[in-house]
Specification:
607 residues; alpha/beta; Glucose Oxidase, domain 1; eight-stranded mixed beta sheet; four-stranded parallel beta sheet; 23 helices; 16 strands; globular
């Protein structure tokens, strides 16, 4: 089926808007491709340094341009459960490369922080900026110009977007992303959430909370809820950057090992030295970006990607906007119910048919661009499959089943859970914002209530403990934007606000900060732009002002007379105590130059 007219119109508009910047990007890509890598053209001293630690056979191979050299960019550390399995991947990749007569080297290690560890802590104020640090770190490794292709080992929150920004800046090289898979199912996510709310109310102690958290996050692998990390994996597959069916296979299984080896060999097969040259900068185009937005909406994915996708697209010379994302959401139905949008986790989603089923349903409905390039070859239909372990230990693929294994988790197109994806852009005199409604019940999608203003999330939590929030309220948490303090996630506020909603109060959050990829049942107008420190009207809100958050109409309004609002001045706010400690002082330059949330909140110049 051809792409639906509405989706094609949005894609065409993005293409036209991006024409000049995309052409300039592709010209730079072609220039880079024509000038390297040519290891035989490196000075002998350069080349000797590049392969000094290699085995003799690899040294001989790298002496000229006879065989391809695969760069490995790894975000391994063993503090992140999702990234701990990557410890053994480089050797698997080296072995796979040698089997096809090639070489593989670790080009770079990049930082990888766990937002789960830093939620509500000072370290969370480095989280968003870590994306751009990761891009810079990967670029340093690839700048040695020793490689014909690269594989990227990363899964979580800012890590995959940072790696993809780097890959697109080295867009003349093929790029394959290699996941490690989710941990097996532990304590159900809804039960964990209940314990968190009980703890927030003081009804259970720290021991009970820690026991619940430990049963939920219990082994190597990605957290099993559908937050930013698992949204990343969906996007890499639907953009054709994974090998088909690779996203949600558990770690430390024979199939995961086979998929890793296969991905390395595939990266080597698509270099300029072969017949299937697939530079990632040409592979990822406007259609690929639109497909990622479609997938995000169809699965109820992370709100963080309303920032990351704009920054990723910009790295390829493509100008994506919040309006594009919202318009795509309006025509893409929700086909997945995975926590926090439902009770299932990603293992249940995968068992029900997973991404192969979802991609087929969207293709058949004309809601994905099928005619895209992927690392597996031309056409996204190749991804409407399930990956299985063959008899000889290799990967085999079979067509995805015609029926969902569980229609409560993964719906066929004609039985969609709701007609839209649930990501909305809000506009009004408070600025622009994003709201995710896929986990918010319809009766909570329009909130009009008096504001209570906070400058820190700790202040809101204290007000909750003191009983000051036991009423209808719009909690306005400001000075949380990129320029103020790095735009931390405010997920720690979810249990308290959820308790208030469960008590029958009309509650909403308005903030220039972020929520977690696990944004839940409380309506939250997030990423408010302009932010408070950048002249945003959110800085003028006062306690008691009426605020209306209307996710149905797409509006965010401060119900104050325009003349009164214009006359208000903004009182200075001392942010100095939040600019030191835990490395925050090292990021002062990042805060000064950070872009707006609706422009990707990036430190990089936009074309």
């Amino acid at each position: 089926m051809t792409v639906k007219r509405e989706l094609e119109a949005i894609t065409s508009r993005i293409r036209e808007r991006s024409r000049a910047t995309r052409e300039a990007y592709l010209q730079r890509l072609d220039e880079a491709a024509s000038s390297g890598p040519h290891r035989s053209a490196l000075a002998c001293g350069n080349l000797a340094h590049g392969f000094a630690a290699c085995a003799p056979g690899d040294k001989a191979a790298l002496s000229g341009n006879a065989v391809p050299n695969l760069g490995i960019v790894t975000a391994y550390n063993d503090m992140l459960s999702a990234h701990q399995p990557y410890e053994t991947f480089p050797e698997l990749i080296r072995e796979a490369a040698r089997e096809v007569g090639a070489v593989a080297q670790v080009a770079s290690g990049v930082p990888a922080m766990c937002d789960g560890v830093t939620q509500g802590q000072a370290g969370m104020e480095l989280s968003l900026f870590s994306r751009d640090v990761i891009a810079l770190s990967a670029a340093v490794g690839l700048s040695h110009n020793m490689f014909d292709a690269a594989v990227y080992l990363g899964i979580c929150d800012k890590i995959v977007p940072g790696l993809l920004i780097a890959a697109l800046n080295f867009g003349h090289l093929p790029a394959v992303f290699i996941p490690a898979g989710p941990m097996t199912t532990g304590l159900p996510n809804d039960e964990k959430a209940k314990v968190r709310q009980l703890y927030a109310e003081g009804k259970v102690g720290r021991d009970a909370l820690l026991e619940a958290e430990s049963k939920s996050y219990h082994s190597p692998g990605t957290c099993t809820f559908y937050g930013t990390a698992n949204s990343n994996q969906m996007m890499m597959e639907i953009m054709g950057l994974h090998t088909p069916g690779a996203s949600f296979v558990n770690p430390n299984t024979p199939l995961r090992t086979a998929l890793t080896r296969e991905a390395a060999k595939r990266a080597l097969a698509i270099t300029a030295q072969g017949n299937e040259f697939t530079p990632v900068g040409r592979m990822i185009d406007e259609r690929s970006i639109v497909n990622a937005v479609v997938g995000l909406n169809a699965t109820g994915g992370s709100t963080n990607h309303t920032i990351h996708l704009i920054a990723i697209a910009a790295a390829a010379g493509i100008k994506l906007t919040w309006s594009d994302i919202a318009e795509i959401s309006d025509i893409v139905p929700l086909l997945a119910r995975v926590y926090p949008n439902g009770l299932a986790d990603v293992n249940h989603f995968h068992a029900a048919g997973g991404l192969g089923f979802l991609i087929r349903e969207l293709l058949d409905a004309g809601l994905l661009h099928e005619d895209v390039s992927t690392v597996w070859g031309p056409g996204l239909r190749n991804y409407a499959v399930e990956a299985k372990l063959g008899e000889n230990g290799s990967v085999t693929r079979v067509p995805t089943p015609e029926q969902s294994g569980d229609e409560k988790v993964l719906a066929p197109f004609e039985k969609a859970f709701q007609p839209t994806g649930g990501l909305r852009m809000l506009k009004g005199n408070l600025g622009h914002a994003i709201i995710k409604t896929s986990a918010v019940k319809p009766q909570h999608r329009v909130i009009e209530a008096p504001a209570m203003v906070f400058h820190t999330q700790e202040a809101l939590q204290q007000a909750f403990k003191d009983g000051l929030l036991n009423r209808d309220v719009v909690a306005v948490v400001r000075y949380q934007g990129p320029k103020a303090n790095g735009m931390p996630e405010l997920h720690k506020l979810t249990p308290a606000l959820g308790v208030l909603q469960d008590r029958g109060y009309h509650v909403a959050l308005v903030t220039d900060g972020r929520m977690s990829g696990a944004s839940g049942k409380v309506p939250a107008a997030i990423h408010v732009t302009p932010e408070a420190l950048d002249g945003g009207v959110i800085a003028k809100v006062r306690d008691g002002d009426m605020v209306r958050v209307d996710a149905e109409a797409g509006t965010l309004e401060l119900l104050v007379d325009a003349q009164e609002l214009a006359s208000r001045t903004v009182e200075p706010v001392d942010l100095s105590h939040r600019q030191h400690g835990m490395g925050r002082e090292l990021f002062a330059a990042f805060r000064r130059i950070a872009g707006r949330a609706d422009e990707g909140a990036s430190i990089f110049e936009q074309a």
